[in-house]
Design a protein that fits this description.
- By secondary structure, the chain is mainly α.
- The longest helix has 21 residues.
- The protein contains six helices and no strands.
- Helices cover about 60% and strands about 0% of the residues.
- The N and C termini lie far apart (about 70 Å).
Length: about 120
């Protein structure tokens, strides 16, 4: 019985750190509100961070090509018919070229001035 307890404790100790390192954050974190947000976010975050998706600025056509490429090259389950249209609608609206242009047009926030701790002033 003592061996079983020791084996279980060892297994938990070995498993816990690996799980904590591999855990992803909230899959919705980088996906803006919109129709089909949850579906797209959970599907995409199964393979990579939402940050990767959020950093793209592609037209609907380029998103369509990217989905095909991920299916052919990386074994992503194929998205067909209405599901593909739902994905393309969301991706083009949330991470399309127009969404990126709108984001770039916002001025950068200026951080508050800081006093240099090494200066004489």
């Amino acid at each position: 019985m003592r061996r079983l307890g020791l084996a279980a404790a060892l297994a938990l100790a070995l498993f816990a750190p690996a799980r904590a390192e591999g855990e992803a954050g909230d899959p919705l974190e980088h996906f803006p509100e919109g129709p089909n947000r949850e579906l797209v976010a959970h599907f995409c975050s199964a393979c990579h961070s939402g940050k990767i998706v959020a950093n793209q600025a592609m037209s609907r056509e380029r998103w369509d090509t990217a989905l095909t490429w991920m299916t052919e090259r990386h074994g992503m389950p194929p998205l067909e018919g209405e599901y593909r249209e739902m994905f393309l609608d969301y991706l083009a609206a949330a991470f399309g070229e127009q969404a990126a242009a709108a984001h770039r047009s916002r001025p950068f926030a200026t951080p508050p001035p800081r006093r240099n701790p090494f200066s004489a002033n």
